[in-house]
Structure prediction request, 368 residues.
Amino acid sequence: MAVIPVALAGRSYDVRVGTGLLPDLAARCGTLLRKTRVPVVTDANVHARWGETVARALEDAGKEVRWLVHAPGEQAKSWEGLARTVDWLLAEEVERGDHILALGGGVIGDLAGFAAAITKRGCGFIQLPTSLLAQVDSSVGGKTAITTPAGKNLVGAFHQPALVLADLDTLTTLPPRELRSGFAEVLKYGVLGDRAFFDWCRAHGGAVVGGDLMMQQHAVEQSVAAKARIVAEDERETTGTRALLNLGHTFGHALEAETGYGQDLLHGEAVALGMVLAARYSARIGHLAAEEAILVAEAVGAAGLPVEIARLQLDTDGTGLAKHMLHDKKMDAGTLPFILLRAIGEAFLDRAVSLDDVAVFLDEQLRG
Prediction:
């Protein structure tokens, strides 16, 4: 097992990566589970696959498990899902010193974390990420949120978990599409700041999404370590460093909004497409060599992820997609910073991008 610290002033915590962590859950959480009753927030799919394991681990330690099971999918990460979760926590008489367990992927982690942030003005929570995407990205760093009709993740809070347990065994139950989707966030760390890791992802991405445990462990460890360094430097995204983690997300969130945040385009697929678009746009305006943009697209495509938005057959144009970006949470004084590339491994924040020019670019991409 690897232990990766997230070093924050007064609120540091560990991310533990390995196998067999959920069956040993009570011991791993230790004194964080201070009461007999343990509230666990999950979704129906994860509950069916891992609910018995978690229940047995806690009950063997003398705990009583209390379940809140949401329907699977992005729809749970909503005002309705948040209200249901908070009402349930209050009914369970959760106290500020308690820790809620968030068992699931990014949707459950974001939802349960936000509910913890606002219940009793801040309860503790523990992330138990069960998807590759959640293990390498959303479970680490304390960003919690819900999606509203205005856009994705526009309502939320910074609320750090007390512990993250990334059990690699949970990846064995993921559908191949979900593994590929999660790999997009792995590849992102190489594209934005580590050329050597990008090259590793190109060489071993097939093994990661194919289920090779050793390769998956390396991918998760390296990704978490990269995110931990960035979060420690810029926890609340005030200096611009943490904003680099949004590489691919401005384009990607616009695509998700256009497709309705559903199964037509998973979040990781949108990020993958967004990275390709960010690289192509960087090359278009002279920041990035065209050959580098091609390499990014090839790496994304080699992992079985989408590289052309024309294939989505969207009923919109570049202007329509650009309008979604106006609701991006990174908007500042009426302008939207874009995360672009000077080279693979060298992302930067560009505050001088014209949305009109982005719309023209997206029109070109939509035509294929």
